[in-house]
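Notes from the pairing session

We agreed to fold both candidates in a single pass and log them together. This is the raw record for the first candidate, unedited. Please don't reformat it; downstream parsing expects exactly this layout.

Candidate A
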Amino acid sequence: MQEEIENKTINLAISTSKLTVQTLFKAVMAYLRGRSNPRGKQSIKKLVGQNKGVTNIDIEKTAIRGFGRYAKKYGIDFAITKDKSLVPPKYMVFFKAQDSDALTAAFQEYSASVLKKKKKPSVLAQLHNLIQQVAELPGKVREKKQEHGDR
């Protein structure tokens, strides 16, 4: 594998009337944009096409959308599929085999955040409790008296 990395060369053809550092920089950046591997959430076909070995885990939760943020933080390339044949549907997360340690760290952080959200009381529930407490308070009684005076 080391020999394969050392023996790679790049062929880059530029058509220009005047070769400057700026045109060379633009050409190299265009080349790098074209050959870069996709990162983060992607299709299974693209993930398998990277030839890095793919493994998967099953997830029963439907709130997988929040996981993408943690996967991006840890630089994990992943793909999510939904198995509709089961009731409730089961989700499968495919990822590169080399990302397994990063994936466990991301899942630990994600699950900790989900547990923290469950422990936190709902704002609507707190609001309803406050409304009930205010309703139970005795209200101020104001009496309006109109004074009639002789002038």
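Candidate B (folded immediately after A)
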Amino acid sequence: MARTPTRSNDWGFPRWRGYGTNREAATVRLCDRHGCTEPGTCPAPKSPNSPERWYFCQAHAAEYNRGWNYFEGLSAEEAAQREANERRDAGGFSQSKHQAWAGSGDGSRSRDELRALEVLELEVDASFDDVRLAWRRLAKSNHPDVRPGDKDAATRFQAIQAAYDVLRVAEEARTWKPRAEP
């Protein structure tokens, strides 16, 4: 018959231990990447719409996510349809105005802002001064008064105006500061 230990390691001061702690070894799941000995704390799907998961460390999860394509194997129409269905189903979780930093895009700009930058033929990291200069340049070259009767130029001019408005509103929201109360 095995003898149970009667001695504790708290030396008579039970508050030295954390609540809920015990002496048993904690189970740690290792990273699923072959040869990695780090703990696997980041779950990643094995395939789209599958409940099975890999468990990676942070470094290997980042490597795995870099190559992940959620729409792999779908045509452009099927991918757009799936995205539309998922947006429709997640309508109750639409983005709040105060969480605009978490929207789609590169993290600093929304998807609409990125499209507007494409219309104005600018890079993603363009400043608002660059936006203003590109808007003036393109608006002058596509203005209906400069090109009378050219319907393509008129539609381009409208797209340029809409893109500038999107970027202007976003810049105002980014730089808006509340008034100081007297």
